[in-house]
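Revision sheet: structure tokens.
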Amino acid sequence: MLSQFRKILGTKSGSFLVAVPKSWALKMKIKGGDQVLVEELDDGSLLIKPQHETENESEKLSETTIEYSETIERDVLGRYLMGYDIIRVTSPFKITSDQKERIKKAITSLIGVEVIEEKPNEVVLQCLLSPLAVQLKTLFKRAYVIAQQMHGDSMMALLERDVELAQNTIKRDEDLNRIYFLIVRQLRTIIRNPRLADKAGIKLYECLDYRLAAKSIESVGDEAVSIAANVAELLSLGQSLEIESEVVELSSLVDRMLAEAFKAFMKSDYALASEVIKLSHKAHSIANSLNVKVLKLPPKLAFHVNSIAMSLKIIGDISVDIADLVVRS
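Predicted:
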């Protein structure tokens, strides 16, 4: 990597000049009179790019090749999250129809990815969605709404004894995962190309916080799935739940915590984030009280109610984690 100190030259007009390294200019095929793009980054450094490179930048597609294996789903997902536009899946042998179906199934959870070419020994995948086709904050809000609705529906399934609603809640996790994967892809793309930060509407240094917050929201969805699964099992037992009101109380509290934590994060509201953190003591108190009452229930019933209470407590803890991103920033 080229690293040199350069002297700043002042002019009579009050402006400043700095010479670019000759070796770099030759490498970039820059000559006198050519234009370069000079852009200031968040950390105060300057990014200099030749004009011809910036003009072709949006047309470049990054490619990667992976060999078909038993970990194909994980391999494709990994390359997608890294921001590759084209993923070539190859094999030293003919790719069978079953293997092709498995590849196609692997991309069902990836927004914008399609099979664009099939050969005997290769399947070519391409993400047809431009890096910032959907604003990052829009995706983030959508992920939150889905996670919150999943939590609400899982509790509604318990109150209304609706097994179908519980099962539908579990299925919605796929929608949340698809958005979460796209958020991670966008954030990694922004980190690799800082010029995209402004277009995304965030600062480069905020990428880590958004990455952590997005994972937290995805985890809320996972806990909602756990609640829904336990609700379905509870309903199959055909027994009434005598501590339903305590479960609802805890659910309502952590739902409020999540809503306020999300709002605090989006608005960088320190005071609101602090309030969320204070509520965690109340959530833990209700959860502990609920656990004591659970011990008096029949074993099978106790197991599922305890699991629901634990998931609700975790959602409260996740809300605190999101609030902490504001308080400690």
